[in-house]
Structure formats: C-alpha cells, structure tokens
Amino acid sequence: MSLAKKFLFFLTIAFSTTFLFSNSYTVKIGLKENIKKFKISLNQSGATLIIKSSSGKVTKLKPKSEIEVRLMKDDKVQILEKTYSLPFKFFSKKGIKIDNKIFPGEIEVFLNKNGTLTIVNILDIEKYLYGVLPYEIDTGWPEEMLKVQAVIARTYTIANLGRHKEDGYDLCSSVHCQVYKGISKNIHKEVKKAVDETLGLVVVDKNDNLAQTYYHAACGGVGTENVLDIWSGVRDFEYLKGVECNYCKNSPYSKWRCVVSQDKLVKLLLNNGYDLKKIVDIEIISFTKNERAKEIKIKTDKGDITMKSEELRKIIGYNNLRSTKINEIKFLENNIIFYGGGWGHGIGLCQWGANELTKQGKSFKEVIEYYYPTTRIKKLY
Ligand SMILES: [Zn+2]
Ligand SMILES: [Zn+2]
Questions:
Q1: Where are the domains of the chain?
Q2: 354 C-alpha vs ligand 2 centroid, how far in Å?
Q3: Quick one: which ligand is closest to 225's CA?
Q4: CB-count exposure of residue 70 (10 Å: 0-12, 13-18, 19+)
Q5: Count H helices, E strands: the chain?
Q6: 35 CA to middle of ligand 1, Å?
Q7: Is residue 5 predicted with pLDDT exceeding 60?
Q8: Are strands 26-35 and 171-172 parallel, antiparallel or unpaired?
C-alpha cells in the first residue's frame, strides 16, 4: 500500500470508528452551591467510596454510615478526619446518596468564587433523563407521551449545555433549567423505557440545528403562541409561531382564579424596581392571536406601568398567575382577582394537548412535529 493509500485507509478507519462509537453526552448538573458542609452515604452498604483528587491520587474508603464533608479554613475539606485538597470527585459503583437521593456517575466538589463548596453530578445524559422526566410529567401518562417528553427534554438539555458555565457546570437542578433530584431507588420502568427507546433522538430545525423545545402544561384550549408575543428579547423561531390546540380542553387547568392583595402586589412591584404606592386599575392593552393578554397596563398613583403580561406572571409567581390567558380582572375591597385558563407560557408544546393526541393514536414523532412545525426528529447518537 502506498503511503497515501495507507493514510486514506487510516482515515477511513478513524472516521468509521468515530461514527460507530459516536456516543452519548456527559452532562454536569449543579446540585448545590454556597454550602460549607454536606453529608454523603453510599447507595449500597459495604460498597467502596473512591475519592479522586485532581492530581489523579485515588483514596478508597469503606464508610459504614453517612459521612460529613466539611470545608476547612485552609480551603481543604475534611472527610473522616483526613483532609483533601479541592477539587476532587467521589465515585461509587452503585451510586452516591446526598440528602437521601441517589446520584449515579461522579460527584465533583470544588471551591467556587464565593469561597464555598459547589457540588456537581457528572453523568451520562440518558441517566440524567431518568431523573428529570418524573418531575416534568405525570409518569402515569401513556408511554408515547413519555417518549415525547424524553425527546424534548433531551433536546433541551443538549441545546442548553453550558448555560451555567460561569458556575462550573452545564445546567442547574431547579426549575430554572430542569428539575433533577437524582434517581429514585426504583426507577419508574415506563420512564426508563421511554428514554431507552428514544435513545439519542432530538428535535432539529430545517437547518439541522437543535430546536428550542419549550413546552408548558396546558395552553388552555386556545392554541399555542408566537414566542415573540410572549417574551421580550428573543429570536424569531420558525417552529415557535403557534399552532391550534383544543386537545387540552379537558385539562384540570382549564379555569383558575388568582387572588392577590393590593398591598402584596404593590410590594412585589416595588421589589421589581417600580415606583408606586397604590394600584388604581389594571388593564389589558393588547392581545395575542389567541386572546392571551400580550401587554398589560397597571395604573398607579405615580403613573402607568406597561409590561408584557408574562413579566407580570414572573412578578406574581408563575404558579400563582398560571397563564396570561386572563379573561377578567376584578378589584374587590383590598384584593385583585384574576380569572383565567391554562397553565404555562403557551409556547411550543402543550403537554395536556400532546397527551390527548397520543391517546388518539398519534406517535411521539407526529406529536412533536405538530407542535414544532418544520422541525424533524434526528438520531444524534
Ligand atoms: Zn439553571
Ligand atoms: Zn393545548
């Protein structure tokens, strides 16, 4: 074989190996920060706890019970009377328990910029999804709907890797990113099946870029919205312009009431940088195509405050003012009462609607392509 041919042969082998073994993603999930001590235990009694220092030094321990990890004055940590330099990683074959929750993969501990400890779970994305799904969806829903959720949660995760780069991890474990509290002892078998059967599947747009797979609980039976009508400072996405949806009309969130006192709302607005003493009236000044409140005007003793309605949800609390599908606002004595329907921002996929579509026999692919038009499902690994 000539040298050039040999090189070509080598390249072919290298490429096909990469292709064959192009694997999953490892994600870094922030579990805790700004703490000075925490306790860990092993998921299996008698197992070995491995502590790997950044220089590669390995210490093996066989803790009999829960052990405390405590930050010392010299920026080292103490574990069972020995000190260790930061950063380091914990590992145990069957998982590590923190606050009674089981975490697979590795636990990284490092000193953050505030001089306190940050705990990060480093694990394979597929295992991470086992732990995410139970918090984002009712695990009793049909298998096809769990697959919908697995694909959009996987897409969201990969599209947002590095969101918390400055904090030293990819995603946090709260609602800000995706709720993750480790994996329960008995992984829900339907959840595991939905994740496994959609292994590596993600949603991509026309240009093959990962889609922003936003979703919400229920659009209220009025249809989903154009992202530009709801959020400020976002890009225009071809697949987030809104679709018809009355499939969620039987959701338990079709009607709600939110009561907030004058004093409370004044306080909340003050905390958000607005200047006022009293609210005189609240008026919806523009609507989206589905008659959600797009912009809202709050008339106060010190002038009018105009904002996107979704901003008011943020101020009052996303779980209090459940959506911007506000049908009526009443002033009653010291209370302001909002009457509305649906739950969530109304962008992207409507979970209750999607659930209904899977019950009607639609596949997870059809459902995803319905709520994110022009996108398709792609196998990434
Ligand atoms: Zn976050
Ligand atoms: Zn809907």
A1: 26-190, 201-250+345-379, 256-340
A2: 8
A3: 2
A4: middle
A5: 9, 23
A6: 18
A7: no
A8: parallel
For residue 351, the ligand closest to its alpha carbon is: 2
| Cβ within 8 Å of residue 193, ≥6 positions away | 143, 146
Ligand nearest to the CA of 166: 1
Residue with tokens 């019970």: 65
Ligand 1 center to 44 CA (angstroms): 30
d(CA 26, CA 202): 16
Mutual angle of helices 143-159 and 125-136, in 10-degree steps: 120
Q: Which ligand is nearest to the CA of 167?
A: 1
Ligand showing the shortest atom-to-Cα distance for residue 170: 1
Ligand 2 centroid, distance to 307 Cα (angstroms): 25
Percent share of the chain, pLDDT over 70: 94
How far apart are the C-alpha atoms of 297 and 305, rounded to whole Å?
Answer: 6
Q: Where are the alpha helices (DSSP H) in the chain?
A: 3-21, 125-136, 143-159, 189-197, 227-230, 262-271, 309-316, 351-359, 364-371
Q: Who contacts 129 (Cβ-Cβ below 8 Å, separation ≥6)?
A: 150, 153, 154, 157, 195
pLDDT band at 22 (very low <50, low <70, confident <90, very high): low
Give CB contacts under 8 A, 24+ apart, made by 193-199.
193/143, 193/146, 194/133, 194/143, 194/146, 194/147, 194/149, 194/150, 195/126, 195/129, 195/130, 195/133, 195/150, 196/126, 197/147, 198/147, 198/150, 198/151, 198/154, 198/364, 199/126, 199/381
Q: Which of 173, 235, 176 has its CA nearest to residue 209?
A: 235
Condensed to tens digits (0 to 9), the pLDDT of residues 180-238 reads 999 987 788 999 999 999 999 999 999 999 999 999 999 999 999 999 999 988 999 99
Cα–ligand 2 centroid distance for 344 (angstroms): 10
- How close is the Cα of 247 to the center of ligand 2, in Å? 6
Enter the pTM of the model: 0.86
CA of 278 to the centre of ligand 1 (A): 34
Distance 280 CA to ligand 1 centre (A): 36
Q: Which ligand is nearest to the CA of 253?
A: 2
Ligand closest to 173 (CA) is 1
Measured from the alpha carbon of residue 248, the closest ligand is 2
- Peptide bond connecting 87 to the previous residue in cis, omega within 30 degrees of 0: yes
